[in-house]
Design goal:
heterodimer, A: about 400 residues, alpha/beta, Rossmann fold, 2 domains, seven-stranded mixed sheet, five-stranded parallel sheet, 16 strands, B: about 290 residues, mainly alpha, ABC transporter involved in vitamin B12 uptake, BtuC, two-stranded antiparallel ribbon, about 5% strand
């Protein structure tokens, strides 16, 4: 009796040792904090972002998680209120102690939480296209930036339609900075901004703007209007018979206007996109199938949702390469270069100097039936501008946002 | 020359129509009943959504818009009978209740119908005057706003219901003693206000993006016009809309939309400083 119990007792000891070691590795989930609007004015763009994140988390967790650890996604909905963005950023970073923060739609919300992320010295993925220029070691930008979207789109529009451009922009930091970029890119092309209008967010009546455009007689419109109210411009312009070509870094693939408005309202709208749902490469088709299986009622997989999905795979790649979730270890991986993943658009890499992402850009156009087709393939474009003007996150952390009119001081 | 004059008139008419149509429902409910309806934007959204669904189901647009207005009115009558009536003597509580209703309506629509709905194209095409292209539908909206003002006048001044309603608002107890059915008057008046809000949404639905929070684009203009107009919907709304439209059109034309918005709000501050009872108080004082 005693010998048997001694033997069985001794037999379980190595079992405990093995089990103990494995549970130590697999126990702790990796906490990811997600701040995305799924109500309020931007709900239609934020909901695909949440879905993209959820899809990526489900896929990664089903394949064993990151380094054997499951991902725990905590999502908070700031309802389009920048003050709530700040409150939730603080809550996720300080109280919930997430390993990484992802989120933000408008540039205003990003700039509202970036100081908080810097103070907490945590890692933050901003997954939207934007006006570029943020040189901050705590931020990784997943979306496309002007040298990828505007330096491709604007010369193409000038060559195809003409040099006279009328800008209609939303009146906040994104609108002003993107308009600045427009002016900067048009200058060497001998382009001319014949009119520039900044519209407060929430304004939905554009009769005066349409009349101003008709007065100025531009060749094409540079559209930087943001939000559902300002999107009413397209319907009203079409009804007034404006019929001008339009170019935008934020229409079609972000807000899927071509699906929401009746044809031919979006006719002759052009954009430069790294992702749009109509992309039909094999990787894209497979990605779309998986998305529609999980979210069959999704009206459109927009570029924001795609970026949100891709951001999680980027994070997985970085953590596995660094073998750690600490920001400094992850940054060492980025600094070495070669931090790349295979995304549905193709291979994309994080640039060490700016921590922005390279993208495969295509020029897309909407026709009179509101159908999208590709007019030009620009190939892979690096986010070169910040490195060019002197931002080098491998050497110094500027924590600033630059623009063509606001360059770093020469040191 | 004529083209420019017409262009000014068109811009004025556009802003005037927006102000009148946004404010009419709110003005009726506030002017006749003293209730501040914080769910006004949601009645507008209701009218827009019902119109869109009716149109996509095959109804011709004017009929669909009628459905939108009637649906909003019916919901208004139902809400008044259940939630608002107990709160007539408690204006702050009615504010809270209508605000809560607005939140429920917005979030409920978001949950049930999703974040956006496919829109209707703007009908009726366009016309050209001089070098400008104009949308015929915007002129239809202007005509509709004038009709709404005429309708309110006729309803409250020339019908028996109107006499009863005005009597109830002046002195409910005396009116009841004379045989007026007070509760029915209240319900119907609220319903008329809700239906006018629904009509605003129905009329603007073909020109705008349809999202659950679309009422918020009308709210500022609606409240501002009602405040400047004062308590009497008959005396106040039209002159207020004319004055504010002139200011906004002028500033929009010369300085752009930002200054148009700022100017509108500054004008409101100045007007109610000078005329605390709004235009209707000033006109009533002049008449007596």
């Amino acid at each position: 009796m005693r010998r048997r119990s001694l033997i069985s007792g001794a037999a379980v000891l190595p079992v405990f040792a093995i089990v103990g070691r494995h549970s130590g590795l697999g126990a702790d989930p990796i906490k990811i904090g997600l701040i995305e609007d799924i109500s309020g004015d931007l709900a239609m763009m934020g909901l695909p972002k949440l879905h993209g994140s959820e899809l990526a988390v489900e896929e990664i967790n089903n394949k064993g998680g990151i380094m054997g650890r499951q991902i725990l996604l905590t999502h908070l909905d700031p309802q389009g209120d920048n003050a709530r963005y700040q409150e939730f950023a603080r809550r996720l970073l300080q109280r919930d102690k997430v390993d990484v923060l992802i989120g933000g739609i408008t540039s205003a919300s990003r700039e509202a939480i970036r100081p908080i992320v810097d103070r907490q010295n945590e890692l933050y993925f901003y997954t939207n296209q934007y006006e570029g220029g943020v040189c901050d070691a705590n931020m990784i930008s997943v979306g496309a930036v002007p040298e990828q979207q505007l330096s491709t789109l604007i010369p193409w529009m000038v060559e195809k339609f003409g040099k006279r451009v009328y800008t209609i922009a939303a009146d906040y930091n994104f609108g002003h900075l993107s308009a600045e970029w427009g002016r900067t890119i048009l200058k060497p092309l001998n382009g001319e901004i014949v009119g520039e209008e900044f519209i407060p967010l929430g304004v939905s009546q554009f009769a005066q703007t349409i009349q101003n455009v008709q007065n100025a007689k531009p060749d094409w419109l540079y559209m930087l209007n943001v939000g559902a109210a300002q999107d009413s411009f397209f319907e009203q312009a079409s009804a007034a018979g404006l019929n001008l070509p339009m170019g935008s870094p934020i229409k079609i693939m972000l807000g899927f206007e071509h699906k929401r408005f009746a044809a031919p309202t979006l006719n002759n709208m052009h954009a430069a996109a790294n992702w749009f749902e109509e992309l039909d490469t094999p990787a894209a088709t497979d990605f779309k199938k998986r998305w529609h299986t999980k979210f069959p009622k999704e009206p459109y997989i927009n570029d924001m949702g795609y970026n949100a999905y891709v951001a999680l795979y980027m994070y997985k790649m970085l953590v596995e390469a660094a073998k750690s979730t600490k920001k400094d270890d992850i940054r060492k991986v980025i600094d070495q270069g070669g931090a790349c993943i295979d995304a549905p658009e193709g291979q994309i890499c994080i640039d060490p100097k700016s921590q922005h992402t390279s993208h495969h850009m295509r020029l897309i156009s909407v026709d009179a039936q509101n159908q999208v087709h590709v007019d030009k393939d620009f190939g892979v474009i690096q986010p070169y501008w910040l490195g060019q003007i002197g931002c080098d996150l491998t050497k110094h952390n500027d924590k600033e946002q630059y623009s063509p009119d606001h360059l770093p001081k020469p040191s | 020359m004529f083209a420019d004059l017409f262009a000014y008139f068109y811009q004025f008419a556009d802003v005037f129509a927006f102000l009148v149509l946004s404010a009419a429902g709110l003005a009726v409910i506030f002017g006749m009943m003293g209730i501040i309806n914080m769910a006004h934007g949601e009645f507008i959204m209701c009218g827009a959504y019902v119109t869109t669904f009716a149109y996509h189901d095959g109804l011709p647009l004017p009929l669909a818009q009628g459905c939108g207005a009637i649906a909003a009115g019916a919901i208004g009558v139902a809400l008044e009978a259940t939630l608002i009536r107990p709160l007539y003597s408690r204006p702050l509580d009615s504010l809270l209740v209508t605000w809560g209703l607005g939140l429920i309506a917005t979030q409920g629509t978001l949950i049930v119908l999703g974040s956006s709905v496919a829109g209707i194209g703007t009908p009726s095409g366009g016309f050209r005057v001089g070098g400008y292209g104009f949308s015929t539908y915007r002129m239809i909206l202007f005509a509709a706003s004038v009709c709404v003002l005429a309708f309110i006048y006729l309803l409250f001044m020339r019908t028996r219901f109107g006499v009863h309603a005005r009597a109830t608002m002046q002195n409910a107890g005396m009116a009841q003693a004379l045989g007026v059915r007070r509760n029915r008057i209240y319900a119907l008046t609220f319903g008329v206000g809700a239906a006018l809000a629904g009509l605003c949404g129905a009329l603007y639905a073909p020109t705008m993006t349809l999202i659950p929070t679309m009422g918020s684009t009308f709210i500022v203009e609606a409240f501002v016009t009602v405040v400047v107009g004062g308590a009497s919907v008959l005396l106040g709304t039209a002159p207020a809309a004319v004055a504010l439209a002139l200011i906004r059109t002028g500033l929009n034309g010369v300085y752009g939309q930002v200054f148009g918005q700022i100017g509108l709000l500054l004008a409101v501050v100045l007007i109610i400083r000078v005329l605390p009872q709004g235009f209707s108080g000033w006109l009533a004082k002049r008449a007596s």
